[in-house]
């Protein structure tokens, strides 16, 4: 569950979880998949010592965040504005308390969370300078899918149940907790995510993105592909490149977290050699 609740000016409450170094100047926003709660850290052993504060935010209907109200249209654009409001609060309070400047921010979007990441980067380009999208489906191909129902399964986020890197591992336990948190309010969150994905409001301003965008795809992911999904997404983005995880499945977010984190919060420079250029 979220570490704390943040009340927005419009009355909506967001569940917020923090990872990594809470005192670091560099901050990264983590946008979880659908279904998924925002309290997921891909690899705490890496995040803790990276030198970045990482913030996970429950989207409406997940975890501790308020669901969309009756009559409201589920929207990644509106959620991006909520995130931007919260990030502005972080900037203001950090500057006031410690005189340390924070921002712009890095953003990671996993699966459908990539749409929230893109909406934030396009609507608030002054806040975001680097984006990593991990196994994010092209909107045109995703529109054909239907929302899963709780209890959620790992297959719902593109992970094979027999995945050897998943069973009996710490990463597997964290992902199961993420799926449990996603079902706290039943199917509200995932149904609204799928409805928001079908709307084009978050796609209209993708050309306004000024951030460097890295699109990461596992070579053996069961539902997304560097060529079919990555290439199509890259064409919509001004400053994007596609890389592939060799033999990568649906767990690239955990197995290659250092390389992903290094893009949004550079520390060592460059990208891991296990990530190679993807779609032409």
Q: Which strands sit side by side, in order, in the main sheet? A: 1-2-4-3-5-6-7-8-9
Taken from the alpha-carbon principal axes, the silhouette is: globular
Relative helix content: 25-40%
Report the major sheet. 9 strands, mixed
Gap between N and C termini: 40 Å
Structural class: alpha/beta
Order of helices and strands: EEEHEHEHEHHHEHEHHE
Low-confidence stretches: 95-99
The radius of gyration computed from the alpha-carbon positions, rounded to a whole number of angstroms, is 17 Å
pLDDT average, as an integer?
89
**Structure annotation, total helices:** 9
Q: Total strand count, please?
A: 9
In percent terms, what proportion of residues is strand?
15-25%
Overview of this protein structure:
- The protein has helices at residues 44-50, 76-98, 113-123, 139-142, 170-182, 188-198, 226-236, 252-255, 257-264; strands at 4-7, 13-20, 27-31, 53-57, 105-110, 128-134, 212-218, 240-245, 275-277.
- The protein has 280 residues and is of the alpha/beta class.
- A 9-stranded mixed β-sheet has the order 1-2-4-3-5-6-7-8-9, with helices on both faces.
- Helix 3 links the parallel strand 5 (105-110) and strand 6 (128-134).
- Helix 2 packs across helix 3.
- The longest helix is centred in the first third of the chain and has 23 residues, at 76-98.
- The radius of gyration is 17 Å and the shape is globular.
- Mean pLDDT is 89; it is low at 95-99.
């Amino acid at each position: 569950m979220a570490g704390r609740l943040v009340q927005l000016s419009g009355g909506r409450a967001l569940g917020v979880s923090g990872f990594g170094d809470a005192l670091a100047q560099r901050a990264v926003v983590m946008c979880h998949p659908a279904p998924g709660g925002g309290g997921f850290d891909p690899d705490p052993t890496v995040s803790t010592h990276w030198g970045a504060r990482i913030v996970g935010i429950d989207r409406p209907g997940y975890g501790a965040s308020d669901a969309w109200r009756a009559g409201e249209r589920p929207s990644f654009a509106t959620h991006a504005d909520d995130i931007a409001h919260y990030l502005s609060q972080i900037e203001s309070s950090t500057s006031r308390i410690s005189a340390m400047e924070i921002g712009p921010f890095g953003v990671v979007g996993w699966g459908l969370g990539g749409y929230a990441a893109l909406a934030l980067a396009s609507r608030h380009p002054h806040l975001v300078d680097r984006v990593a999208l991990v196994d994010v489906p092209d909107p045109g191909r995703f529109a054909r899918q239907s929302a899963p129902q709780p209890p959620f399964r790992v297959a719902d986020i593109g992970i094979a149940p027999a995945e050897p890197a998943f069973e009996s591992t710490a990463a597997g336990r964290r992902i199961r907790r993420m799926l449990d948190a996603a079902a706290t309010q039943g199917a509200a969150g995932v149904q609204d995510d799928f409805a928001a994905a079908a709307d084009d409001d978050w796609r209209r301003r993708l050309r306004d993105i000024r951030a460097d965008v890295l699109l990461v795809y596992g070579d053996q992911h069961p539902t997304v592909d560097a060529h079919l999904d990555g290439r199509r997404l890259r064409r919509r983005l001004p400053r994007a490149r596609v890389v592939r995880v060799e033999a990568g499945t649906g767990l690239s977010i955990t197995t290659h977290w250092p390389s992903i984190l290094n893009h949004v919060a550079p520390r060592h420079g460059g990208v891991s050699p296990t990530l190679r250029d993807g779609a032409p």
